[in-house]
Structure formats: structure tokens, C-alpha cells
Predict the 3D structure of the following.
Amino acid sequence: MKNYPYVITVSSEKGGVGKTTLATNLAIFLKALNEHLPVSIFSFDNHFTVDKMFSIKGQKLTGTVAELLMETKGCDLLHTGQFGVSYIPSSTTLPELRGSLKGPMALAKILANSDIPGIIIVDTRPDLDIMTQNALFAADRVLVPIKDMASMDNCRNIFELFEKRGLDRKSLSLIPCLIDERIKFEGLFKDQKTLLKAFAINRGYRCSETFISKSPKVESLNTNPDGKIYPILTHGRGTDVYSQFTALGQTALREYADTKEPRALLFDNWQKEEDKRKKEAYFGRLTGLKSECMICGKELKQDSQVAYYCESSDGAAQGFIESDCFTGFLISAIFRIERELASDDPTRLMINQTARESVFVLNPAEGGSPASIDFHRFNLSGAELLKKQYPLAREPERDGFTGIVQGTLAGYEGQLRDAFLMVHPVDGDNPASILVDESYRELNKLKKTIAAQL
Ligand SMILES: Nc1ncnc2c1ncn2[C@@H]1O[C@H](COP(=O)(O)OP(=O)(O)O)[C@@H](O)[C@H]1O
Ligand SMILES: [Mg+2]
């Protein structure tokens, strides 16, 4: 059975609010509270705190979060770390990867396929860049530390992002952090945490019951002559923060236990449905194909030199065209060259070459009597390069258009349908690849671009 991780992301656009302290120590407390539960962590930041805290001396490192984002399987990147927490080493090259991430759902997909068990904690950079967005969208629970009004104002952007993407804002919870309990106010809101909580709730944000105090002890765990980062679990016993992390850990474990289907599992199911749908759509397109060449009408065989895909804009006719047939059509019907051109004739070779780099469109010209065909050539990005009108001959076999036009655009009682025909080059070794999901989507985009110009 595949494993699907439960993902907790710690995020805030503000730095210095205690994200990394929260992420790393929560991982350690979770493991301490339930030693059988696999807990792992990685960070999108480049300060290597995760590595400093969890790596084991002399450990050989293989792979980092950069490889994770490049779709190396997550469970293969986990390193056994200190305190029983597994970690994926951090990377300094993440900014270079931003461009290659396929949108904000990439990490959700990667984690759905990661086979990482238990809980995984993701620490983020103090901004809402594409990496953080990915960490937010992959999360079952997002923890947003706030320490003052400024950091609360900042989290509005996270909420707006959730709103915009239709994500459940109930998965977001604010945690008042670095709370100085010596500060007391007069009146209703007697201290910092009560004030922050009231403001949060007033704005419709969910706020954690537990808050984290500002503690000189915790601060000293980061700054010491050993240059190490010590965990609260082992070095902060007896402090308020110790009990607060215990409470946070217990809440997280409860929520984890209550989540029967983590997002990774839901995403995987959705992905399987999508794959099935794409496959069915592809086979649907394959069965709709004509089995003959769209120009000469001869049955296409395994060894036919197929070179073009041809589709009518109304979807009624779809099929392939043999290389020689289409070049022959261009030579006789378009260039009006009467004599036979040998296969190595330079004119023929040039016409053939041009055709491989073009998209052709034929459509019945409006009005005109006798009926005419508008012939257009576009480049592969859909920019029009040429347009010319060709009258159709009274005896159809004489104009060279009959095969291609009658076979595809024939309508009611000898009329042509109000549609256009698009001819696009394909890979001769695997012509049907143009009908596969992404290529076909591209082709449709091109078709739209072209239709807008007709
Ligand atoms: N509960 C706490 N009490 C005192 N200092 C803290 C506490 N939590 C974090 N700090 C200190 O605050 C600073 C910022 O914390 P950090 O976790 O790195 O925040 P972020 O990841 O949001 O930038 C660090 O120096 C850290 O040691
Ligand atoms: Mg940090």
C-alpha cells in the first residue's frame, strides 16, 4: 500500500515570528509524543537550520529539496535524523527552480506520489513566492505564527490566496508566538495573546488555543558558544514553552488522527481520475479518426508515410494525410504546376520543407459563385503568412481540391459546411501523439488563434 503523508506547513510572510522554531520543535515533540509515528521535515528556506538540528555527524547526504521539486521520489530523499525525525536536506539552489515549477499544485502532486508516511512538516521562507504557495496548497494544516499586529495584517494575503484558489480556510490556524507575558493592558484585552486572538477572531481567522511565550531560554538555544541549535524538548524542560509545545503537539496528533483522507490521498485519487479521463479522451479521438488518407482516400497502412493531421473545425472529420499526397496537392492545386515533379526535384523538396513548418487552413469562401475556397498558410504559432482564393471547378476532379474538401467539409445537398479545415504536420513515427492530452490541447489553442483571424 502506498503511503500518503499528512502535511503541516508553517508559513508567514513576516520573518522572525518563530516559524522555523515552531516547525523544527513541533517535529521533535510529535515524535516524542508518539514514537511509532513517522515524522519528517524539510524547509524551503536556505538557512540550513533544519540540517543543523537534525543531521547526524558524518552522515552521507544524498539529495535535497531541490531534487524533491525535480520529482525525485520523496521517500528516497528522507534521511534518518536526530530525535527520530527524518529530514530532507535543504538547498541553496531553490530560487533557480522557481521557473521550472509547474504551477502552485506541483508540490501537492509530488507529495501525493512521495510514499512518505506519517506527518511531514514544511518550513517556508518569509514570503508568498511560488515555493510557499506550493507548500500552502499541499497542506492539510497551515500554521501561521503571529507575534504582533503587523504579522496579523500580513496573513491577510495568505487568506486571500486560499479564497482565490477555493481552498478551505478552516485548514489555516493562527498561533500567537513570541508572546511576552509581562506585558499587561488595562481593560478588556488584558494581555498580548488575548488582544491578538480577539483581533484574529474578529477578522474571521481561526486562532489556536495554544500560544507560545517569548522565552529567554528558547532564545539562548539558538545562540550559544557551541554554535548549535538545541531543541526545546531536551534543553527547555520546565519552561512554559515546553508545555505549550506539548499542547500544540497533542492538538496536531488529534487532528492527524481525525483526518481519514489527507490531501495527498485525495490528490492522488483525483490524479488517477484525471489520467483515466485523459486516456478515454485520447482513445475517443483515436476511434474518431478516418482510416483512409484524407486526400487520396486510400486505406492507411502500417508503412504509410503519414505526415499531416487534418481536422475540420466542427470536429466532424479527423484523419491523417500521407506526405506525398499533401505535397502533390500543394504542387498541383496551390502552385498550379502541371508537370510531374520527381521526388528529388528541388521545387518539390522546397514545397515539402515549407509544408513541414506550416499550418494550412481551407474554408469555403463566403458568397462567391462559382464556389471558391480560401486557402491560408500560418506559421506553427498561428501567425498568418499567406491567403489566396481558389475557385472550385465545375467538374470537381479538375481543381485538385475535391479530395480534401469534399471528403471533409461536404454538407447538405452538395453544399459545403460552414467550417474550416486545418492541416498540421505530425511526427511520422508516431502520428497519433498529436492526439495525446497536452499536444492536443496545444493544437486546440492554435486552432482558436487561427479561427479568430478567419
Ligand atoms: N518562543 C521564543 N522565545 C524567544 N525567542 C524565540 C522564540 N521562538 C523563536 N525565537 C527566536 O526568534 C528568532 C526568530 O525565530 P525563527 O524561528 O527563526 O523565526 P522565522 O523562521 O519566522 O524567521 C530566533 O532568534 C529565535 O531564536
Ligand atoms: Mg525561518
